[in-house]
Design the sequence.
């Protein structure tokens, strides 16, 4: 009789203790590059939906401007608030080193989502990238080539000169053009920078058209750049002679695809990044996933995800290509 | 009197000479800069700045400054954009009324703060710069207005028109400049603004309704920022709460100062301001053509502004010297 | 006996009671706002009231605050300087570039500080010798210096050696070093401004430069020394920021000029010169940090923060102007 009561008492208390632990929801915060940026709304959507099904608490914050140091006070504040996971799209590869180290020292899981701290990876625990960035460059070159018959002068309209992802892609594009015989008749005549500003991107595009009258194609691997370039082509009615492609948001490019200014462009799904990041974070904090290179884990809707070199994960393997046929399937 | 007029005449001519010299210099490197195509690029760069500069000119002549024009542009553009997005059934030209009206209201608030509380405009507009930008975020819930919501007819105003294919937006901006010229030269209120700026103490004694003129000047600045707002949507095809109008005040004030408007008030011409805007436009268009990286472009802007100011200062000092000599 | 005519006492306005003179001044308003902000912030978020956290948050603005102290003196003297943030960036870039090129640290630091001094001298020269209004000069130099920083550093960051990093993490009696420097600088400059002849002369120049000059005050020399001081202090602040961030970019301190002017204005400094105190700016710096930290830790969206900052500025100058007009001596 006594034994039974003791056992049930023990079982009950254990149940209470475990539920007490389990009841503490994991707090995740995602710090975007800046507010008013529609791209991050998609990623946030993925986070929110994942947390609804996983039971974690999620908040999105972002500074007013995308300067290198603008995120520092936000990171400090989140540390102060005692979050378990800080996910961030970094505005600078190294300005955040010190403050992220402080976060890690407090046991917070630090993830970079959508972009990485190139050269400073030791200051974060893992990174979630949309695609394998090394394949982006070649993919874009191939898409461009298919539009211009694989010959002619082309140019690249990029964002800022320091953006690490841009530089990775541009380097890969140069590599592909030089070494792959398929593109031997395509010549890269210029690489210009629009600083991710529509005004600057527009003037750079107009300068390209002015400086290189034989230009047949422009690759703009930046959503701001491709929209600006497409606008210029549309207003000058040059869609037949100069082909624009790159990485763009369906919501911004819909007009251009439908009226034929742009025949195709590519991107990935930002929503999936948030979805994956939330699942990964909850898994690591809860102990069900180990953050080790070479490890794998399952995520509903995305299948098996492998943790690659430098603790990087990709949400999808290849870029998604948007065309007039499939553009309406997407709502971001 | 003739001495004074000669100086002013020389001022505008000076800017014109600078523009010609600059274009020629660039033309030797890149002959395609001296084509009609290039002129088109320059003219497309400046309409918003030109409109803003007209308003800012009046404010500075009245011995004030308006730093909030960028945020007023952003807010009115956003309000108009939201009207397009959520009420596409409204006839789109109403957007102009909405935008200009919103801008005028914001400008009026600036004017009230300056006149009612006798506060320095530079600080007030520094405050409203933040205030209006914050309100832009709040009103739009930090979401931008995507391209498909901006009426195509509005966007095509920046691309073409039945008149030689010159975009409407260029006509509108020069039309505003013409109206400003008429206002300044041929209306009593226009002249009163100059009187107020050159001698704020004497002005009321000469019958200038200081409060009313000041309110008017700030409202005009706001209204023109509002116009620039809807034209932003026309030119670039979208409205974004953080970017739209950000940095606008700097470009406008630079153009106005280069155009010979004195920061001490009372001096300035429409022609000079137009030339100042043109010069900045030429520089902005030439830099990417010359392949100058974005990193050096700001340094060049700073240098251009400083040079223009130095010239302004020397010319003014010469003028004062010749005047005092004439009197003696 | 005398033909001297003394005004009847009843013609003079009654002297203001001493307590009024001490209490009703713009700095009191700043203090009141500061206390209100502390209350508000603690109500807004339970995470706020942590002294360590508040001090750490101050380190993010400490460099600007130190420069704002000197800026206060310049504004009191009737001028303004909008270039210090760009100065910080350029000095830091030159310093970082030098030490990366192998130049020994002490020399690299000296180069950075000297560069700041030169920039201050340029500002001073254009304002005093060429007689161009300081607001124009410093808007021009702000773009120029920022642009030069871009030319030197490009879009890349320049690292600084590990031992140089983290000046803000050094704690003395629990207070971060940069905050301590700010407090000490405030005390020193406060004493200079209020209790030395140099300080009195600054006020006089700001009130009426022509009259001051006629009274024998060497306004040009004093103004030049202020611009030089500003240049030097900005450079030092730039180096401190480099230490805090661990690397230097051309956009170091971008937008800082606005924050510094904000601190001075909120502290009751009169934009047209002649009035203001170090105490006011000191309190205002804390006020700004408390307000922004309080809102950030409560996850208040940046849009609301912008609105609050805008309203704060407008309200404070209304109050400042009101107090000054009522207390015309």
Sequence:
């Amino acid at each position: 009789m006594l034994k039974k009561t003791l056992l049930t008492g023990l079982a009950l208390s254990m149940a209470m203790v475990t539920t007490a632990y389990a009841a503490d929801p994991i707090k995740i915060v995602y710090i975007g590059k800046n507010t008013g940026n529609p791209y991050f709304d998609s990623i946030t959507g993925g986070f929110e939906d994942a947390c609804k099904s996983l039971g974690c608490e999620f908040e999105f914050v972002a500074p007013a401007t995308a300067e290198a140091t603008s995120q520092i006070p936000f990171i400090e504040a989140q540390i102060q608030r005692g979050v378990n996971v800080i996910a961030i799209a970094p505005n600078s590869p190294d300005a955040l080193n010190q403050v992220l180290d402080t976060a890690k020292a407090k046991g917070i899981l630090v993830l970079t989502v959508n972009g990485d701290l190139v050269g400073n990876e030791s200051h974060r625990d893992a990174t979630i990238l949309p695609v394998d960035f090394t394949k982006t460059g070649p993919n874009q070159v191939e898409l461009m080539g298919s539009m211009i018959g694989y010959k002619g002068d082309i140019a690249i309209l990029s964002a800022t000169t320091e953006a690490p992802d841009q530089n990775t892609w541009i380097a890969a594009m140069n590599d592909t053009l030089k070494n792959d015989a398929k593109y031997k008749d395509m010549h890269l005549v210029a690489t210009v920078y629009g600083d991710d500003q529509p005004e600057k991107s527009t003037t750079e595009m107009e300068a390209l058209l002015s400086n290189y009258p034989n230009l047949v194609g422009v690759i703009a691997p930046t959503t701001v750049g491709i929209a600006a370039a497409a606008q210029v082509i549309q207003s000058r009615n040059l869609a037949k002679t100069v082909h624009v492609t790159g990485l763009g948001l369906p919501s911004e490019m819909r007009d251009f695809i439908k009226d034929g200014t742009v025949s195709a462009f590519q991107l990935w799904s930002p929503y999936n990044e948030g979805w994956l990041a939330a699942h990964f974070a909850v898994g690591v904090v809860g102990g069900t996933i180990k953050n080790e290179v070479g490890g794998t884990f399952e995520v509903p809707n995305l299948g098996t995800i492998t943790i690659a070199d430098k603790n990087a994960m990709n949400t999808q393997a290849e870029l998604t290509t948007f065309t007039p046929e499939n553009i309406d399937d997407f709502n971001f | 009197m003739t001495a004074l007029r000669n100086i002013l005449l020389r001022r505008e001519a000076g800017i014109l000479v600078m523009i010609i010299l600059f274009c020629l210099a660039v033309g030797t490197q890149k002959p395609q800069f001296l084509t009609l195509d290039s002129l088109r690029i320059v003219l497309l760069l400046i309409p918003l700045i030109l409109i803003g500069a007209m308003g800012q000119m009046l404010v500075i002549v009245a011995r004030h400054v308006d730093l909030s024009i960028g945020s007023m542009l952003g807010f009115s553009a956003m309000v108009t954009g939201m009207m397009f997005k959520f009420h596409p059934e409204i006839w789109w030209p109403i957007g102009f009324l909405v935008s200009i009206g919103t801008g005028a209201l914001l400008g009026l608030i600036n004017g009230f703060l300056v006149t009612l509380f006798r506060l320095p405009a530079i600080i007030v507009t520094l405050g409203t710069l933040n205030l209006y930008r914050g309100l832009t975020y709040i009103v739009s819930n930090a979401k931008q207005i995507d391209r498909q919501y901006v009426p195509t007819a509005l966007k095509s105003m920046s691309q073409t028109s039945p008149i030689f294919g010159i975009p409407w937006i260029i006509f509108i901006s020069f039309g505003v400049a013409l109206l400003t010229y008429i206002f300044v030269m041929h209306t009593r209120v226009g002249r009163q603004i100059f009187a107020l700026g050159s001698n704020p103490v004497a002005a009321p004694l000469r019958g200038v309704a200081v409060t009313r003129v000041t309110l008017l000047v700030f409202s005009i600045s706001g209204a023109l920022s509002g116009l620039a707002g809807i034209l932003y949507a026309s030119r670039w095809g979208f409205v974004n709460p953080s970017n739209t109008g950000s940095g606008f005040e700097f470009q406008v004030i630079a153009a106005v100062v280069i155009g010979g408007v004195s920061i001490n008030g009372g001096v300035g011409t429409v022609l000079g301001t137009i030339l100042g805007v043109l010069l900045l436009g030429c520089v902005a268009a030439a830099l990417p053509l010359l392949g100058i990286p974005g990193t050096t472009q700001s340094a060049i802007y700073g240098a251009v502004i400083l040079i223009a100011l130095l010239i302004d200062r020397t010319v003014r000092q010469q003028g004062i010297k010749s005047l005092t000599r004439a009197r003696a | 006996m005398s033909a001297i005519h003394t005004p009847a006492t009843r013609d003079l306005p009654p002297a203001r009671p001493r307590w009024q003179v001490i209490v009703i001044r713009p700095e009191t308003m700043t203090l009141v706002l500061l206390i209100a902000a502390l209350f508000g912030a603690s109500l807004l978020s339970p995470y706020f009231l942590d002294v360590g956290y508040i001090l750490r948050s101050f380190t993010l603005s400490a460099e600007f605050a130190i420069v704002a102290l000197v800026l206060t003196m310049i504004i009191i003297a009737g001028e303004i300087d909008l270039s210090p943030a760009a100065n910080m960036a350029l000095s830091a870039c030159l310093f970082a570039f030098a030490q990366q090129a192998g130049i020994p640290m002490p020399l690299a630091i000296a180069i950075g500080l000297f560069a700041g001094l030169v920039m201050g001298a340029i500002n001073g020269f254009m304002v005093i010798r060429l007689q161009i209004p300081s607001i124009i000069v410093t808007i021009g130099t702000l773009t120029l210096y920022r642009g030069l920083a871009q030319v030197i550093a490009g879009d890349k960051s320049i690292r600084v050696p590990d031992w140089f990093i983290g000046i803000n993490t050094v704690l003395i009696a629990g207070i971060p070093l940069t905050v301590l420097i700010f407090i000490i600088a405030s005390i020193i400059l406060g004493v200079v401004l209020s209790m030395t002849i140099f300080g009195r002369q600054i006020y006089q120049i700001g009130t009426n430069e022509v009259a001051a000059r006629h009274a024998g005050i060497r306004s040009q020399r004093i103004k030049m020394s202020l611009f030089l001081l500003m240049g030097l202090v900005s450079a030092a602040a730039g180096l401190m920021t480099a230490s805090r961030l661990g690397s230097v970019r051309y956009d170091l301190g971008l937008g800082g000029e606005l924050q510094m002017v904000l601190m001075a204005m909120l502290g009751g400094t009169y934009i047209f010169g002649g009035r203001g105190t170090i105490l006011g700016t000191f309190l205002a710096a804390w006020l700004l940090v408390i307000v922004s930290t309080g809102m950030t830790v409560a996850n208040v969206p940046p849009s609301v923060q912008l609105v609050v900052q805008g309203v704060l500025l407008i309200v404070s100058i209304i109050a400042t102007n009101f107090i000054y007009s009522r207390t015309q001596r």
Q: What stands out?
A: Chain B has a mean pLDDT of 84. DSSP finds 14 helices and no strands in chain B.
